[in-house]
Amino acid sequence: MFDVIVVGARCAGASLAMLLARSGHRVALIDRASFPSDTMSTHFMWQRGAARLHKWELLDRLEARGCAPIRKITFDVGPVQLSGVGPAVAGAANTYCPRRTVLDALLVEAAVESGADLIEGFVVDELLWSEGRVVGVKGHHRGHAESSNSSLRARIVVGADGLHSAVATAVGARAYRGHRALTGVYYSYWSGLTGLGASFHARPGRLILVWPTNDELTCIYVAWPHEEFRQVRKDAEHNFHAALDLVPGLRDAVASAPREQRFVGTDDLPNLYRTSAGPGWALAGDAGHHKDPSTGMGMSDAFVGAELLAEAIHDGLVGLRPMDDALADYQHHRDVLTANGFELSLSTARLAPLSTRLEAFYRIAADQPKVVCQIFGVLGGSIPIGDVYPGAQQPADNRSPAY
Ligand SMILES: Cc1cc2nc3c(=O)[nH]c(=O)nc-3n(C[C@H](O)[C@H](O)[C@H](O)COP(=O)(O)OP(=O)(O)OC[C@H]3O[C@@H](n4cnc5c(N)ncnc54)[C@H](O)[C@@H]3O)c2cc1C
Questions:
Q1: Total-model pTM
Q2: Does domain 2-43+99-177+269-347 have CATH number 3.50.50.60?
């Protein structure tokens, strides 16, 4: 019998398992994958995410695994370019771009070192229930027949099993604040492009991201409007290179560099929250809240949510608060803390042309390093948009600003 079973062992699940194990709880960390392994995701991490790794004493370890800090980003909106980096968040001054093969393995390793029991290659098929509460999971080892099912029991089961969460489906978690998918994306990796640095290029109908990552590779990501993506898929490579033409010199630089991996693409990018707490269960990370990746906030939000949920579950397990109340508080706080980023992601993913008002603002800001720093703080989700952008609406509860 475990205190907690966590299904899914990446940014949300491995962090949560680590934090709970560090608080002395008996945790099973389950994933159908084994580690190290990749997943469909690029990996830009703002200071908000790096601050959690720093607090958990994992940031130095990440750097030691070949993930260099990114100290300068170019934000290029066409007629204006801003260069800088956002303000430090709780001791984390820089941004990072760790390959998921490196980051997720490091988190899993930290969970195991902290005392969590890792069960890799195990697919959770269904939940066990007793008197209306979730009390465990049933599943099978990958490569074995589903008939060779085994069960594990715990006081709480957490679904940190991603957008298509089996746990969310099994508990019937309700979606809210849903918004249709806005973009479709392709990305890949090139060697020999380290001189490009890190940049974010917004053009009407396109978003192009360039990030240096582990092994001296550069990850390049292009987003198109969701409704164009079916057409884009017909010749992804050609359309990808055509998009790079929107950034002077980028297409030629990329054409002369070796591409090291296949193109990865998806338009399965809905924007939604799900009810994330109920009797004996909770949802963490993408399972409970998913948004367009254009702003690169998913991993940082997964860390923030894992920290909130670990605190709530700990309080419930040791009797500081009734468990169901603690889990409900977790959902409320997660929604508050992710609301700015959700709205910013929606507005970025619309890939709208730059308004004359914003262009004027960026032109004035470009000569003011302090304002540029704050703009990066907004993009990274550490400063509310209403504090920086003129005319941005900031509701009284600071939850959903919209420009
Ligand atoms: C194209 C793309 C680009 C992105 N770029 C960025 C970026 O630059 N920066 C950023 O911060 N975020 C980015 N994101 C978002 C980021 O990938 C997610 O927010 C993040 O991975 C969420 O982590 P998670 O732990 O919740 O879920 P996941 O990373 O999805 O992990 C879920 C885990 O659950 C396991 N699992 C699922 N079902 C079962 C089951 N039934 N039994 C056992 N195990 C199971 C899976 O094997 C998986 O390992 C991007 C996403 C996409 C799609």
A1: 0.96
A2: yes
